[in-house]
Amino acid sequence: QVQLVESGGGLVHAGDSLRLSCAASGRTSMSDQMGWFRQAPGKEREFVVAITWTGIISTYADSVKGRFTVSRDTAANMVYLQMDSLKPDDTAVYYCANRPVLVNHWAYWGQGTQVTVSS
After folding, report:
1. Cβ neighbours around 20 below 10 Å, total
2. CA angle 95, 83, 24 (to 5 degrees)
3. Residues 34-67: pLDDT tens digits?
4. Who contacts 87 (Cβ-Cβ below 8 Å, separation ≥6)?
5. Which of 29, 31, 74, 93 has a CA positioned 20 to 30 A from the CA of residue 54?
6. Closest CA to 60 of 84, 30, 28, 77
7. Alpha carbon distances (Å) from 67 to 2, 64, 88, 105, 111
C-alpha cells in the first residue's frame, strides 16, 4: 500500500506561482513512477508529468511545458510540482499518483489539492 497526500494548492492570480507537494509513504520502490494529474470542472482527468524516484522525468503535457517543473526529494519521500506563469486554464484539482513498476498502472492516488487561478 502507498499513501499519498498533496498540499500547496490555493487561490492565486494569473502569472503567479505555486508549488505543490506530495508526501508519499508506504511501500514504494525507486523505479516507481510518481505522477501529477489534474482535473478541471467538467473535464476529464489530464496527465501533467511523471518522475521516478531515480529522477527520470516523462514528457510534460503540452499545456504546461515550459511553465511547470517536477522534482523529487528521495530522502524525504516528497514529490513537487513547481507551477509558474499560472493561467486561469490551470484551474483544477491536482492529484498525485503512484505507478508501481510491477503493476504498470496508476494504482494509488492522493485526495487532490485545489488550484484556482483568477484572471
Report:
1. 24
2. 40
3. 999 999 999 999 999 999 999 999 999 999 999 9
4. 14, 117
5. 93
6. 84
7. 29, 5, 13, 26, 24
